[in-house]
Design goal:
By secondary structure, this protein is of the alpha+beta class. It is built from six helices and eleven strands. The protein has helices at about 35-50, 95-115, 145-150, 165-170, 185-190, 205-215, and strands at about 10-15, 20-25, 60-70, 75-80, 85-90, 120-135, 140, 205, 220-225, 230, 235-240. Strands 1, 2, 3, 4, 5 and 6 form a six-stranded antiparallel sheet that branches. The chain has a three-stranded antiparallel sheet with strand order 9-10-11, with no helix packed on it. A hairpin with a 2-residue loop joins strand 9 (about 220-225) and strand 10 (about 230). Helix 1 (about 35-50) runs antiparallel to helix 2 (about 95-115). The chain is elongated and about 80 Å long.
Length: about 240
């Protein structure tokens, strides 16, 4: 178990230039009830997540560390209850996610106490909170095309500076092909042709699936790596560079 005297979350690990961070909150107040301790930690967890997702989506998980004892004995065990890794975007309601996570932790704790081990909670040690920057496969903003694709003159590479690349790519077929890479009234005039209201931006593959179901259309998404074109359902086709 970690050692600290701070009553607030402390950054205990940082890796890959800050992309992966671990925070720890010690139960310095000696709070006995797990729900009370989780509620005590919530404002700080919320603040850390909100600050993190300002720059990028993140994945996080929470681990509650506690010590259990068999009554009237000296038999003790350290136990840890943890949530699965959860993805969070700016558009998500962090409070709802945290409440679901707390319910999961409390259920794990209750299940352990009821399974007949004879152990009961003696003390809560603290919370480990892991936050990792998350880069989902999906559309974001403008990037130049590789030269061998640009030379084909068969692709519209939309010059956007927000995170709605997916939306513009869908609408591109509806605008005048002359300077279709430029965003203006040409895109505004056709944006109501499709329903984008349930799509998060930047769009992930899950968002693409939602878009297809909502609008009853089919969308093909490809990624390019070392000249190899990969279809979203893993069908592959080799591109010959010219």
């Amino acid at each position: 178990m970690r050692t600290t005297t701070s009553s607030t979350f402390v950054l205990t690990k940082s890796a890959f230039n800050g992309l992966c961070k671990e925070y720890f909150l010690k139960n310095t107040d000696g709070i006995k009830n797990a729900r009370d301790f989780l509620d005590h930690s919530k404002p700080e967890i919320y603040a850390i997540l909100n600050e993190s997702i300002e720059n990028s989506p993140v994945k996080y998980n929470i681990k509650l560390e506690a010590t259990y004892i068999i009554p009237n004995t000296h038999t003790r065990e350290n136990r840890a209850f943890k949530t699965r890794s959860r993805s969070v975007f700016q558009s998500d309601d962090v409070n709802i996610f945290l409440e679901l996570d707390f319910i999961k932790l409390l259920q794990e704790q209750e299940d352990m106490e009821l399974k007949g081990s004879g152990f009961s909670l003696e003390s809560i040690y603290g919370i480990i909170f892991n936050v990792n920057l998350y880069k989902p496969l999906g559309g974001s903003s403008y990037i130049p095309l590789p030269a061998f694709i640009e030379r084909k003159k068969a692709t519209i590479n939309i010059l956007n500076f927000d995170e709605k690349c997916f939306k513009y790519s869908i609408l591109a077929k509806l605008v005048n092909p002359v300077h279709a890479e430029r965003i203006g009234s040409n895109y505004v005039e056709v944006e109501n042709r499709y329903d984008f209201k349930n799509i998060n931006f930047p769009a992930s593959l899950n968002d693409v699936t939602k878009f297809e179901k909502t609008n009853k259309v089919s969308v093909n998404i490809y990624s390019l790596k070392n000249g190899e074109l990969k279809y979203k359902n893993n069908v592959k086709k080799k591109i010959q560079k010219e």
